[in-house]
Design a protein that fits this description.
Radius of gyration: 14 Å
Number of strands: 0
Strand content: under 5%
Number of helices: 5
Length: 74
């Protein structure tokens, strides 16, 4: 059990994604409105996006705005 826990890899840090990947993520998120799909389409692990949302409130607000903008439009 200890050996299995020691070899388990941690999610990559948010900085591991490139600027181009984050740009693609924002574009896909604006089009799709789904965090997981946008992350996968941009080549970013969804866990990286969720971890960043928990640690960066500005990022969380920005992604919420992109996800909900069609629902908020008059």
């Amino acid at each position: 059990m200890n050996r299995a826990t020691a070899t388990r890899s941690a999610p990559e840090p948010g900085a591991a994604a490139t600027d181009a990947q984050w740009t693609a993520f924002y574009e896909h998120l604006a089009a799709l409105g789904v965090l997981r799909q946008a992350a996968l389409a941009a080549g970013i692990r969804p866990e990286t996006v969720y971890d960043r949302r928990r640690s960066d409130t500005d990022f969380a607000k920005q992604t919420d705005h992109l996800r909900l903008r069609d629902k908020l439009a008059p």
